[in-house]
Amino acid sequence: xxxxxxxxxxxxxxxxxxxxxxxxxxxxxxxxxxxxxxxxxxxxxxxxxxxxxxxxxxxxxxxxxxxxxxxxxxxxxxxxxxxxxxxxxxxxxxxxxxxxxx
Length: 102
Description:
The protein is mostly helical. The chain has helices at about 25-40, 50-60, 80-95; strands at about 1-5, 10. The chain is about 45% helix and about 5% strand. A two-stranded antiparallel ribbon has the order 1-2. The longest helix is centred in the N-terminal third of the chain and has 18 residues, at about 25-40. It is globular. Residues about 1-10 and about 15-20 have low confidence and may be disordered.
């Protein structure tokens, strides 16, 4: 995931063995939108900043990404499963504390 400072998030989906993959915004944006849609499904109270925070904190790093954030990989590789789990946990905390997002 790459965040360019203009409130936009880019993604890079690694090439698979057959040589297919995404490496630019127009191809990878639907993947991030789908991830955020799943996050909103389990927690409709998420704000845009909540979603950004969750995507950043659940991004995966490895030998390819190196230390993040960086110019090539941003905050790392998108992990949709972890992001949805985090959004779900965030919703439980809000409900148990009685707080609601604006």
